[in-house]
Design a protein that fits this description.
- With 421 residues, the protein is of the alpha/beta class.
- The protein has two domains: 243 residues, Peroxisomal Thiolase, Chain A, domain 1 (3-Layer(aba) Sandwich), CATH 3.40.47.10; 150 residues, Peroxisomal Thiolase, Chain A, domain 1, CATH 3.40.47.
- 32% of the residues lie in helices and 20% in strands.
- It has 14 helices and 14 strands.
- It has a ten-stranded mixed sheet with strand order 5-4-6-7-1-8-14-13-9-10, sandwiched between helices. A two-stranded antiparallel sheet has the order 2-3.
Length: 421
C-alpha cells in the first residue's frame, strides 16, 4: 500500500523539510560556491597521483579541516570523518541551529551518513607504513579499529557535536547520499529524532584500490585536459572520474521548522529505493524506471510535474545509455521536464554524489536556473534525451519539483523528490 503523498498531508509533523546545507565539493566548499561553479563552467577535476597506481585524474576537495577539528582529532580520525564534521557543522550553521547548539537536546538528534565504502584508505595506509618495519604488526596503529568500523564517519560527527541520539552509516554504494537522506526522513516521521543530520560522504580518492578497480573494468576516465575528462552523455566518454566530497543536511519536521522561523530549502515529498537483482555492476534500466515511478507515486505526482531530473550518469558507455532508457520510459517526451548532470563538473563522489548533486539543483527553486551538463561536445545519439540541458544553463519561469537519481553497484537504485515550499 502506498502512503498518502507527503504534500497532501495536513499533519505538519509528518512533513519533512530541508533547513540547512553544508558541503565540500571539488569546485566549492559552500552551496553558493558549488552553484556558481555549476552555472559558470567551473570544473573541480584535476591531475592527481596516488601511490602504486600513479598519475590519474580526480575531483579533489580543499576545505579547512581545522575549522571544526583540532589537528590532533583530525590525525586520530579519518578523511571521511573530517569531511563529515565539516559538512555537518556547516549545515548546522546554515540552518541557524549552531547559535543555540548548547541548548539542544542532543539525545533527540540523529546522524545518518551514506557511504559507498569505508576503511580501505586506513587499511592501505597501515599496510604501506608497516613495510618500513619489516611487517612487524606490533607497529600497527591502535587507532585502526575505530578508524575502519563502518559507523566511523557518522560516529566522528556525533563525537564532534556531542550528539547522544542514534548515529550510523548507510552502506548503499553510490546511492548512499540519497539513502542517508531517506533514513533521516523516516526517523523523523517515526519520532526517533527531532533533528536529523543526513547526507553522504566519500574519501574514495585516497585509496589506490578504487582507481585500480575501475581501471581493470575499463571504466576509468582519461583525457589530456582534466576538466574535460568527466563527460556524461558525450559520444567520446570513456569512464568515471573518481572524486571525494560530502554534503550533510539538517532535516526537520515542517511544524518544528515553522515554529522557529527557519529558512526552508524545500520539502522531501517522495523517495524510493529498489534493487536490480540482475548483475554486480551492469545497471538495469527497467528497475531504475520502476524506482523513479515508485518515488513519483509516493509523492502523488505525474512525471510531467517534475521540472528537473538530476541524473546519476557517471560517464561510462553502458551506464549512461541504460539510465537514458529509464528516463525516457518514465518521462517520455515531456516538454516540461529538464535533465542535467553534476558529475561532469566534479566527477563521481561516490557515497556523497546524490547529496551533493541534489544540493547543486536546490537553488533553482529561487533563481529558476537549470545548471547544465558540460563537456557534451558530441551528444551520443543513444543519450539524446528530450530536455537535456547541455553546456549552457537554462532559465525556467518557475521550478516546483526536482527528482534526484542516484544508483550503485550490486543493483541498488534510489530516487528522491523535493518540492518548492
Amino acid at each position: 500500500m502506498i502512503a498518502t503523498p507527503t504534500h497532501l498531508m495536513t499533519d505538519d509533523s509528518q512533513r519533512v523539510v530541508i533547513t540547512g546545507i553544508g558541503l565540500t565539493a571539488p569546485n566549492g566548499n559552500h552551496l553558493s560556491e558549488l552553484r556558481d561553479g555549476l552555472l559558470n563552467h567551473r570544473s573541480g577535476v584535476r591531475s592527481y597521483e596516488i601511490r602504486y597506481f600513479g598519475k590519474t585524474l580526480a575531483g579533489v576537495c580543499d576545505f579547512e579541516v581545522t575549522r571544526y577539528q583540532t589537528r590532533k582529532d583530525a590525525r586520530r580520525g579519518t578523511r571521511a570523518g573530517s569531511i563529515g564534521i565539516y559538512c555537518a557543522r556547516e549545515a548546522l550553521r546554515d540552518s541557524g541551529w549552531d547559535g543555540d547548539w548548547d541548548g539542544v537536546d542532543k539525545s533527540q538528534v540523529g546522524v545518518y551518513v551514506g557511504v559507498t565504502e569505508h576503511g580501505n584508505v586506513e587499511t592501505e595506509n597501515e599496510v604501506y607504513q608497516l613495510k618500513s618495519f619489516d611487517y612487524d604488526t606490533s607497529y600497527w596503529s591502535h587507532h585502526h579499529n575505530p578508524r575502519t568500523v563502518a559507523n566511523n564517519p557518522a560516529g566522528e560527527i556525533a563525537l564532534n557535536l556531542g550528539v547522544t541520539g542514534p548515529h550510523y552509516t548507510i552502506g548503499a554504494a553510490c546511492a548512499a547520499g540519497n539513502a542517508g537522506m531517506i533514513q533521516g526522513v523516516q526517523m523523523l516521521r517515526l519520532g526517533e529524532c527531532d533533528l536529523a543530520l543526513a547526507g553522504g560522504v566519500s574519501e574514495s580518492i585516497h585509496t589506490f584500490g578504487i582507481f585500480a578497480g575501475f581501471a581493470s573494468q575499463g571504466a576509468l576516465a582519461a583525457h589530456e585536459d582534466p576538466t574535460k575528462a568527466s563527460r556524461p552523455f558525450d559520444k567520446q566518454r570513456n569512464g568515471i572520474v573518481v572524486a571525494e566530497g560530502g554534503c550533510m543536511y539538517t532535516l526537520e519536521r515542517l511544524a518544528d521548522a515553522r515554529s522557529r522561523g527557519a529558512k526552508i530549502y524545500g520539502e522531501i515529498v517522495g523517495y524510493a529505493i529498489n534493487t536490480d537483482a540482475t548483475d554486480f555492476v551492469l545497471p538495469n534500466a527497467e528497475r531504475q524506471a520502476e524506482c523513479m515511478r515508485l518515488a513519483l507515486r509516493r509523492a502523488g505526482l505525474a512525471p510531467e510535474q517534475i521540472d528537473i531530473v538530476s541524473t546519476h550518469a557517471t560517464g561510462t558507455p553502458h551506464g549512461d545509455v541504460l539510465e537514458c532508457v529509464a528516463v525516457r520510459e518514465v518521462f517520455g517526451r515531456s516538454e516540461k521536464t529538464w535533465i542535467n548532470n553534476a558529475k561532469s563538473f566534479i566527477g563521481h563522489s561516490m557515497g556523497a554524489a546524490g547529496a551533493i548533486e541534489l544540493a547543486g539543483n536546490l537553488p533553482a527553486f529561487e533563481d529558476g536556473w537549470v545548471h547544465p551538463t558540460i563537456n557534451v561536445d558530441e551528444l551520443d545519439p543513444e543519450c539524446d534525451l528530450p530536455g537535456l540541458v547541455a553546456n549552457e544553463p537554462r532559465q525556467l519561469n518557475r521550478v516546483e519539483y526536482i527528482l534526484n537519481n542516484s544508483f550503485g553497484m550490486l543493483g541498488i537504485n534510489s530516487a528522491l523528490i523535493v518540492k518548492r515550499i
